[in-house]
Amino acid sequence: MPSSPHDRLGRRVAYHRSVARLTQQQLADAADIHVGTLRKIEQGRRRAGDAIVESIAVALQVDPALLTTDRERAGSRIKAAIPALSAAIASYDVPNDGPVRPLPLLRGAVAEAVTWRLAAQYVRITQQLPELLGELFRALQTAQGQHRPDVARLVASACRSADAVAYKFGAYDLSARFIEVMRWAAPQAEDDILDATIAYVRAETFFAARAHESGLRALETAIDASAVPDGPPAIAARGALHMRAAVIAGRAQDADAANTHLAAARQLADQVPEASYSGTAFGPSSVRVHEVSVAVSSGKVQVQRALEVARGWTPPPELPAERRSGFYIELARAQLWSGLPDDAFESLQVARRIAPQHTRDHAWVREDAATLRRLKRGDAGSLTSFAEWCHAT
Fold first, then answer.
1. Which residues are CB-neighbours of 134 under 8 A, at least 6 positions away?
2. CA nearest 309: which of 364, 362, 259?
3. pTM summary value
4. Which domains does the chain have, with CATH numbers?
5. Is the pLDDT of residue 36 over 70?
């Protein structure tokens, strides 16, 4: 009788665990899963989802494909799902007939998608968002009275989660379409803070086109039009715009504008606790992460500034996984530019542990892993494995 996929996965996990000389408890702790869950996986009595397989693979320092060759790599699965996202948005204003759940259930589904986005769980987004988007478009078409703004906000939030996948995986035209649908939904939401959030997301189109000066102007216009910062949500919305403006100013080589926006973001961050506001993390730690980003965006001339900001500090666990991994990816680039290849590789490994899906398909990770591999040709161990994992050439 042929073995099941669960059996094959379990045997591979057990084998690589033994090679790594780890107990089940040690591997479970490293993968941040319950030891009982790991035991059932190894015994073939439990299916392991993508997130668990990724976590186990990272803890074992092996490619997930070594654990389950009958499973496509997460990146390949995400790219294969892009057409479904494109199809879901094609009929946003003339949705197909179908069921619509009550508003509380839709809120819960969208909140879950936001959680996946912040945690860089892109596979889950591609699995659930096409159907959810269609349902939300139907809900908005039929929403009446006071419910219509609520549904419009949910549409914009769900589109933002889908856009995160499109943008991160290079589908920039699709990303721009999602942003346009967000802008279409915004007037129906009657929410000034949502307008600021969409302006924040829209900056992606300028990054993708390398139109940094235009992006900076668009963000500064959005800052001027943003809601008066009279409470934490409005403060965070304006502060997030300043953070993003600082980064794009760095890319535009406008140091004065970058410093001005960083200072404004820092001042606003001191007024609110670190948290996720309207789906965007903001607070003192987020601003510090962006200080590193601005320095790296400015090129090698600011590399020492990036190292100074990061020295002796680590992003707190309450920051979203995507933002924490991004910090280490950018720190790695600064370390590589500073002639610290070992430190750079360590930072890339930390980013991988925090958010594997975000790290593996990040362009800078591939570039820097390839550079590290060339610099350290004699290292045929973990560096080679990492470079192969992220498809560095």
1. 88, 91, 95, 96, 98
2. 259
3. 0.83
4. 8-13+15-67 (1.10.260.40), 74-187 (no CATH), 191-319 (no CATH), 321-393 (no CATH)
5. yes
